[in-house]
C-alpha cells in the first residue's frame, strides 16, 4: 500500500481518498507508529500528511529520520513537508509571513516533474505559519509563493518530493494531477486498484476465511449491508443466508426492493421476517422519541436473534457479515482491535452471545468505493445510490404516535418528494431528504370550495459530507413547488408543506 502518515489534522482521510481515486491502494497509519512497523507493511510509497502549523509548535509530532534510511518514495504535504525538510537537513524558519487559505503558486521555470507544465499563478490552498527557507541537499526547488520561498521541492534520484500547500483539497487547482505525478512519475506506481481487482481480492480472502462453513448476514435495506452480502455471496454462494427484518417502518417500495430486485440481482437466499404487527403493537401510543428508538432497537434484536437461532439450528452458523466501513475503523483507532467497536452497527446492536466470528469485507473502503463496488457487482442502481436512512425508519419521522394510517400518509408524501428529486436529477446533490409528518399539528386550509383541517409535512433536504454536520440544501424553488403541489393534491390528509431551513448544528438531520 501507499501509507498516509496521519500527523493529526483532518487531512489524512482526504489524502487517502485522493490516492485511491488515482487507483492506488492507500492506508492511514498514525504518526506514532514506529518506522520499522511502517516498513514491515512493505509500502510502495509514504505520504506525510498535514498537521500542526509549525514543526516548532510545542508538542508537535516528531518525524523519525530513520524513515529516510531506505529507498521508499516519500511525499510530504504541509506539516509533512516541513518535517521532511527538517529531517533531511533543510531549514525551516519563522519568516513571520503566515498564509491561510487561497494563495497563488509560482512554479519556478522548468518546474520539474511534480508541477510540470502547470500554469503560472496557480491557486493552491495553504495553511502554515513557518516556512521552509532552504531545501535539503539534492532537492530542486520547483515553486514558491508570497509566504513560502520554498513551496515545492523534489529529488528524482531518491524519489522524494513535497509541497507546502494541500494538493488534496478541492481549492487547490490541479491538486489531483500533482498527487498523481508523485504516484506515477516519481514513485513509479501503476493505477491498478480498481473495483474489479478489489472484488477479486476480497472474494479470495472471504473464501480463505470461511472455508466450507455457514454464514449469516442481516440486511437493513441500506447500501453497506447490501454490498457486503453481495460480495460474500459471490465468494461462497449458498453458504450465505441473509435475514431481512421488515419492521413496517420502511419507505414505499423499499421492502420490495430488498425482497425482489436484490434477490433477483444476486440470487442470495433470503429469509424475510414480517414483523410489522409486532413493531407497531409495541409502538402504539408512544410519542417520546427516545422511547420509540428504544422499543425499535429492542424488538429488532429480539427478532433478528430469534431468526438467527432458528437458522443456526437448521445449519450451524459460524460467521456474521458486517458492513463496517473504513472511516469507522479509522475513527475508532485504526487497524487492530477495533472489530468490536462498531461491529454491530448494521444490524442494530446484536448481543455478543450470538457468538459468531465477523466477516467485514468493506473494512478498507470508503462509502463511494462501496457504491462503485455495488455497481460492479450488478446491484440495482437505485439500491447502490440510496440515501442513508435511519434504522428506526419512518417512526422517527412521524412527530407523535405511530400507526398504520400515519405511516401510509407519510409514505405517500415521501414517495412524491423522492420522485421529484430524482426527476430533477438532484439525487446526488443532496445527502438525505427526510420528509416529516407533523401528525399532532393541524392547520386550516382551503381546497376547491371547502375548508380543510389537515396536517403539515416538513421537507428536510440536507447536504453533508458525513452527517456530523449538515446544511439545508438550496433546492431549486420550482422543484420544491412541484413537490408541494403534488403532495397537497395527492395526499388528502396533508394540506400544508413547509421547508426546514436549519443547519446542523443546531438542528439534527432527523426531527426525533
Ligand atoms: P441526526 O438526526 O442525528 O442524524 O443528525 C445523523 C445521521 O444518522 C441517521 N440516523 C440514524 N441511523 N440509526 C441509524 O442507523 C438511528 O437510530 C439513526 N438516527 C439517525 C440520520 O438519518 C442521519 O443520516
Shape: globular
Sheet with most strands: 9 strands, mixed
Distance between the termini: 42 Å
Strand order, main sheet: write it out: 2-1-3-4-11-10-9-6-7
Q: What's the alpha carbon Rg, rounded to whole Å?
A: 27 Å
Can you name the CATH architecture of the largest domain?
A: 3-Layer(aba) Sandwich
Within CATH, the superfamily of the largest domain carries the name HUPs
Organism: Actinoplanes auranticolor
Binding site for ATP: 220-226
Enzyme class: ligase
Subunit structure: Homodimer.
What this model shows, in words?
Keywords: ATP-binding, Glutamine amidotransferase, GMP biosynthesis, Ligase, Nucleotide-binding, Purine biosynthesis. It catalyses: XMP + L-glutamine + ATP + H2O = GMP + L-glutamate + AMP + diphosphate + 2 H(+). Homodimer. It is a single chain. With 512 residues, this protein is of the alpha/beta class. It folds into 3 domains: 2-186, Rossmann fold; 198-384, HUPs (Rossmann fold), CATH 3.40.50; 393-499, GMP Synthetase, Chain A, domain 3. It is 33% helix and 22% strand. It has 14 helices and 23 strands. The strands form 5 sheets. The chain has a 9-stranded mixed sheet, sandwiched between helices. A 5-stranded parallel sheet has the order 14-13-12-15-16, sandwiched between helices. Helix 10 links the parallel strand 15 (317-321) and strand 16. Residues 293, 388, 390-392, 432, 467, 504, 508-510 line the site of xanthosine-5'-monophosphate.
Amino acid at each position: 500500500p501507499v501509507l498516509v502518515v496521519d500527523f493529526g489534522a483532518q487531512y489524512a482521510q482526504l489524502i487517502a481518498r485522493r490516492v485511491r481515486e488515482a487507483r492506488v491502494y492507500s492506508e492511514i497509519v498514525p504518526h506514532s507508529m514506529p518506522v520499522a512497523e511502517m516498513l514491515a507493511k512493505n509500502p510502495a510509497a509514504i505520504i506525510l500528511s498535514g498537521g500542526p502549523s509549525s514543526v516548532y509548535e510545542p508538542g508537535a509530532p516528531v518525524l523519525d529520520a530513520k524513515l529516510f534510511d531506505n529507498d521508499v518514495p516519500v511525499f510530504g504535504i504541509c506539516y509533512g513537508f516541513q518535517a521532511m525538510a527538517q529531517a533531511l537537513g533543510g531549514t525551516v524558519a519563522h519568516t513571520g509571513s503566515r498564509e491561510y487559505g487561497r494563495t497563488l503558486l509560482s512554479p519556478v521555470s522548468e518546474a520539474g516533474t511534480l508541477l510540470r507544465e502547470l500554469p503560472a499563478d496557480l491557486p493552491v490552498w495553504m495553511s502554515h505559519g513557518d516556512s521552509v527557507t532552504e531545501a535539503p541537499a539534492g532537492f530542486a526547488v520547483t515553486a514558491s509563493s508570497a509566504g513560502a520561498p520554498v513551496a515545492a521541492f523534489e529529488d528524482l534520484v531518491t524519489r522524494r518530493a513535497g509541497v507546502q500547500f494541500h494538493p488534496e483539497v478541492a481549492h487547490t487547482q490541479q491538486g489531483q494531477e500533482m498527487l498523481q505525478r508523485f504516484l506515477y512519475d516519481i514513485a513509479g506506481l501503476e493505477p491498478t486498484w480498481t473495483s474489479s481487482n478489489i472484488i477479486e481480492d476480497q472474494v479470495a480472502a472471504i473464501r480463505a476465511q470461511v472455508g466450507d462453513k455457514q454464514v449469516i448476514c442481516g440486511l437493513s435495506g441500506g447500501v453497506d449491508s447490501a454490498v457486503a452480502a453481495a460480495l460474500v455471496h459471490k465468494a461462497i454462494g449458498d453458504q450465505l443466508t441473509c435475514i431481512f427484518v421488515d419492521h413496517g417502518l420502511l419507505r414505499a417500495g423499499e421492502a420490495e426492493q430488498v425482497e425482489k430486485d436484490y434477490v433477483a440481482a444476486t440470487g442470495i437466499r433470503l429469509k424475510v421476517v414480517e414483523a410489522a404487527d409486532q413493531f407497531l403493537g409495541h409502538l402504539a401510543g408512544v410519542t417520546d422519541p427516545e422511547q420509540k428508538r428504544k422499543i425499535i432497537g429492542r424488538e429488532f434484536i429480539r427478532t433478528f436473534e430469534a431468526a438467527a437461532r432458528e437458522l443456526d439450528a437448521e445449519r450451524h452458523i459460524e460467521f456474521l457479515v458486517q458492513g463496517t466501513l473504513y472511516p469507522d475503523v479509522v475513527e475508532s483507532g485504526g487497524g487492530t482491535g477495533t472489530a468490536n467497536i462498531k461491529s454491530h452497527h448494521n444490524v442494530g446492536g446484536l448481543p455478543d452471545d450470538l457468538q459468531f466470528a465477523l466477516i467485514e469485507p468493506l473494512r478498507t473502503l470508503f462509502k463511494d468505493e462501496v457504491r462503485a463496488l455495488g455497481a460492479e457487482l450488478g446491484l440495482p442502481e437505485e439500491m447502490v445510490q440510496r440515501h442513508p436512512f435511519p434504522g428506526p425508519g419512518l417512526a422517527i419521522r412521524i412527530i407523535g404516535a405511530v400507526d398504520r394510517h400515519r405511516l401510509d400518509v407519510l409514505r405517500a408524501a415521501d414517495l412524491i418528494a423522492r420522485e421529484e428529486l430524482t426527476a430533477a436529477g438532484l439525487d446526488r446533490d443532496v445527502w438525505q431528504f427526510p420528509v416529516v409528518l407533523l401528525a399532532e399539528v393541524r392547520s386550516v386550509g382551503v381546497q376547491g370550495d371547502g375548508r380543510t383541517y389537515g396536517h403539515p409535512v416538513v421537507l428536510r433536504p440536507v447536504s453533508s459530507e458525513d452527517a456530523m454536520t449538515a446544511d439545508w440544501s438550496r433546492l431549486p424553488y420550482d422543484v420544491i413547488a412541484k413537490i408541494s403541489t403534488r403532495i397537497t393534491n395527492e395526499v388528502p390528509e396533508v394540506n400544508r408543506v413547509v421547508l426546514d431551513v436549519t443547519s446542523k448544528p443546531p438542528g439534527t438531520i432527523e426531527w426525533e
